[in-house]
Amino acid sequence: VLCGRTDDCPEKYGEKRTFVEYSLTVHYYCLLMSSGIWQRGEEDEGVDGFLITDIRKEVNRAAKLKCNICKKKGASIGCVAPKCKRSYHFPCGIKKECIFQFMEDFRSYCWEHKPVQTFMDKESRGASQCTICLDLVEHLPTYTILKSPCCKNAWFHRECLQYQALSAGIFFFRCTVCNNKDKFQKEMLRMGIYIPERDASWELEENAYQDLLQCYQHCDIKRCLCKKGRDYNEPDSKWEIKRCQCCGSRGTHLACSSLKSWEQNWECIECRSIFAKSGKYGRKKKRSLATSEKTDGTTCLMEEPSPKTPRQSSGSQHNFLLQSPKIMYQNNLSPCSHLELPASNRVTMSLSPLMLNRNWSLRQKHLREQRKEVCKILKELKLQVNTKTTRLNINADDIWNSALKGFRQRNFSPTNTIEINFINCKNKSKTDTSAASKHHFFQLLVLHLQNSSLFEGSSAKNLSLDFQAVKENLYFEAGKMIAVSLVHGGPSPGFFSKTLFDCLVYGPENVKPALEDVADVDVAQTIKMIKYANSLSSLQSTIHDCYEFLAAAGCLRPVTALCDKNMLVNDILIHHVIKRIISPLESFRQGLKTLGVLEKMQMHPDAFSSVLCHKPKRLSAETICDLFTIHSSSDVKEVKGADFWMGYLQDVESGESVVTFEDILLFVTGSSSIPSIGFDPEPTIKFLRIRYPIGDRLLNCLELPITNTYQQFKNKMELTIRNTLRVERE
């Protein structure tokens, strides 16, 4: 009814929709670009919010206008350039190379006033491949050819870009060369490419990734003992298949490798050979090989795969294993033991960007799993906390002294529920017993501890030696505060060095520190001079120069050969990093025993390492989406609201919003980070008929308004969150 054509070409004119009850057929793009119509209805009214009566009025208005291209009536689209009176149909405009911008006010420009891309005089006027269709494209400033705004030599056919945008959707449409999204999408929208606000077509395909959910289920032992075959798998029995804990691409029945339980570690022969060649195969692994012998004295033949079984290349396994964060623990070495190996024994490889990205993703997945485990453990510990309350009066300007006073007061008990009452320097009370104030208190406290004189180092910190702090028993109080913070919903500390963590978990006698653990610049320089001495005479000269330091440290030893420097360096490191601070370390350990935290750390070292030694992962759209549970009814509009919420998270992640994920979390919960124990109650979302969003910090509930358009939703979110947080800060 708008362009007068019967063509059904969704790529050019948008979806063609027919409404039999209204005797009405429209192309979606014709409707969007018509100059005299707006969305005045709800999303489920009329045609995507365009009311049927408004469409008929627009048809009547256009019937009086003649198209400047085909000279027929019904031209509903006009050029927005000042003083330009041209009108045209949408298909005519496409044919005449007009530009239609599918954003903001949905502006259209005629062939004379359309925006063009600027080309530098220095740019090559040759030809290159279109990186979508791989055909040649000339470097010419024409309507049918577009240049990437982010890559110097990336050129595309307009038609290829439009097909790519329709397939990828707003979340995945980006430059095919550099992967830039924001700058690329902005320029393509300006030049008339339509980017639908939906997920990519491959994400919408049902069971598209079903093959990735298959686990390897095959016994690769040379002599499989299972009568039902190598592929037989019976859970919770001796015929359960255990996969290699390193590569996951080999398997064995528990009985075939004499494994007593599923929890026992097992590696395939390829992974063992890689460990052996890299010099990282520890003594305990050799013992585990011995355990593969049968009890009757016969040896169980190890994993020589059957000829029918597909196998990864050894190179791919090698790359993966060398980068895997699990290797140190699987070899039962201390986590810092890789630093002890001489450079000649270390394997260095050049990894492809794809492999590095895969390894990084695997490490991040491992961290997420470990943090989930910590969350469960801390929730178990929190069962000790009773309903009896202890109120702490906290001065935010003097967080340490006021916290210390509160923790040392007679009625303080770690098993009581903690309430925080913030006061200012004039003792004017600001009563706030909500969880938000407790989050804020623990954030300030952990940040102060991280930067206090009790710890030394840059990002990964060890305990320092502060005699006054030892005298006042502050190391004990620091350990106690961190334990209480973890169980009562405080943030993840994330600043422990691996050496400090291992001393706490395994005991200082089982840990060998590295040069990176030395924070004192002068001591580090002395160790380097000894370590890198290239002759016996230079080594003896260095020892002579630092004789007093070595004597005070108890590290003097006769040096008769250059290789003696390794033992000397080791002695200095153990003295400076461990023996020197043994008293603070013991006090700190005693403090961490509060509420049973240290005991759980020793039982689950991998899990607690993820929150004590690693900074929390930056918040992302996926993290926030998983954190909030949407409580919805059968109202169709709420489903649209959920889409708006997801779209808004994507905007925040891509930097297209003035609000950050931390702002959203702070607005709802009063905390800008996710505690190690998680939130209680768990954050939820409700869609209500309200004007503006509301953050209920008592229930951790985000109440969102139901809006007609995404832009209205985004504007209300940003206005409310920014103003609320600004007022709070003031």
Automatic annotation (TrEMBL):
Q: Which domain of life does the protein's organism represent?
A: Eukaryota
Q: Give every PHD-type domain span.
A: 1-114
Coiled coil where? none
Q: Name one GO cellular component term.
A: nucleus
The record, for CDD domains, names: ePHD_PHF7_G2E3_like, PHD_PHF7_G2E3_like
Q: Could you tell me which SMART domains the record lists for this protein? A: HECTc, PHD
Instruction: Report residue spans for region: Disordered.
Output: 286-317
Give this protein's Gene Ontology molecular function annotations: ligase activity; ubiquitin-protein transferase activity; zinc ion binding
Whether Thylakoid counts among this entry's keywords is no
Pathway(s) this gene product operates in, as recorded in its UniProt entry = Protein modification; protein ubiquitination
Keyword annotations for this protein, in alphabetical order, are: Ligase, Metal-binding, Nucleus, Transferase, Ubl conjugation pathway, Zinc, Zinc-finger
Instruction: Show the Pfam families listed in the entry.
Output: HECT, PHD_G2E3, zf-HC5HC2H
**Gene3D superfamilies recorded for this chain?**
Hect, E3 ligase catalytic domains, Zinc/RING finger domain, C3HC4 (zinc finger)
Localisation per UniProt entry = Nucleus
The name this protein carries in UniProt is G2E3 ligase
Give the organism, scientific name. Answer: Pachyramphus minor
Q: Which gene encodes it?
A: G2e3
